[in-house]
Amino acid sequence: MEKREKPPSEPGKWRQFLAVMVVNLSTMTYGLMVGWQSPYGPQLQSSSSPVGNEPMTDEAVSWLSGITCLAGGLVTGLLSVIPDKYSRKRFGYLLTLPMVISWVLIIFATEHIHIYIARFLHGVVGAGTFFFVPVYVSEISNDNIRGLLGSLLMFAINFGILLGYVLGGMFSLSVFAIINLAGPVLFLVTFAFMPESPVYLVRQNRIREAARSLKWLKDGDGLVAERTLSYIQANMKQADTATRSVKLSDLFRDRATIKGLIIVTGLFICQQFCGIFAMITYTETIFEASGSSLSPNAASVVIGTIQLFGACLASSLMERAGRRSLLLISCVGMCLCHCVIGGYCYFQEFGYNVTAYGWVPVTALSVFMIVYCLGMGAAPIIVTTEIFSRDVTSLATTIGLCCLWLAAFVIVKVFAQLIALLGMYGCFFLLALCCALSFIFCFALLPETKGRIREDIVDELNGKRCTKSEKDAKHIIGMDSEHAAHV
What we know:
73% of the residues lie in helices and 0% in strands. The protein is an all-alpha fold. The protein folds into two domains: 11-194, Up-down Bundle (Growth Hormone, Chain: A); 254-451, MFS general substrate transporter like domains (Growth Hormone, Chain: A, Up-down Bundle).
């Protein structure tokens, strides 16, 4: 039997890594927008609130998150056509506009309505980031490091959240907003030196610019850049023709597309219903129940640090362990953590002396954050870029992301009522059930996508026998990035 040679390693990994780190400065800025509510929410509810003539109520504070989710859902559909029609870099530049306006609004806020408008703009930034960053990353990355570079989005968000916790404990709200203006400015300056997406440039028939972009991304290797450019050009006409004619009915044209849509929407809903919101929101309550002497802000910083560690771990394992395996492990781990915290709350609620076991819920909370980041936090976004045919990817992922924002809004607005109805322990047991159902969903429907070309995955979803393997795939830019998911 003839032995197949392993494809040669593609050059330019470190340059691609640099470009991905720069583009994720926008993602870090969104993480800061998510993280600031934790330290400043209690201040807005205090008698000495920095904004408005009276403190915010619990309902008003819940809308700080709710309006962000609503904005994200509304804007997602509107943004779905932009990355395919306009320059990726231009879109990134435009994204800095709502970033700057939102922070300026907070700096000069005198009424609660100013904060709500800023939070709406934060939702716009979130929707734009989840569209713009993955498509740019997928179009400049070698296939064999696509998962690793894609997982850095979650790392950047968690780093931004942690930074928000830390800075929130040190500065007033207005000073915090002034400091955060540095984020979009730094992104704007550094992104100017990064290359445009070669896939976009070929689409615009700007071949010389595409060649220069590829040469930079391939670490100056002209031969590899030329080969990649030829491949993108050869596949562009067919992809463009398919994309122009895509309709909503195309999402139901075959088994692979229907199953892919179910997988994507299901993963995003599972991501929100696995309990990440509950864990972040009730970090302070869990630490208090354990008898910890940490301040609420210090507890948030601890959990933010653990999340960041989990994101680092996910980045290192995504291309080694695979998306499906990490998701299954994540679901099992989160389910067990919810059961442990639910059991602790149950015994505490019914008068049992659990003082000696105060370390248990804190440990479970810490493990939860790690296993969440390991799989459910990052993998859904990466899987979304890999399981659809090129022509329907943009439309299908738009629907999936709208489901994500809607699910997040439901959790934000309903969870407090569930605590009143079921008690704290009942809610954690319910979340454990959601994680168990998520495991069944992933086990039954989700294929492994690590290192596989798009056609191979689509064939498997169609029920065909897969004959293509990673060893047969050409690891070149643009192969799987045409109309990549705009998560």
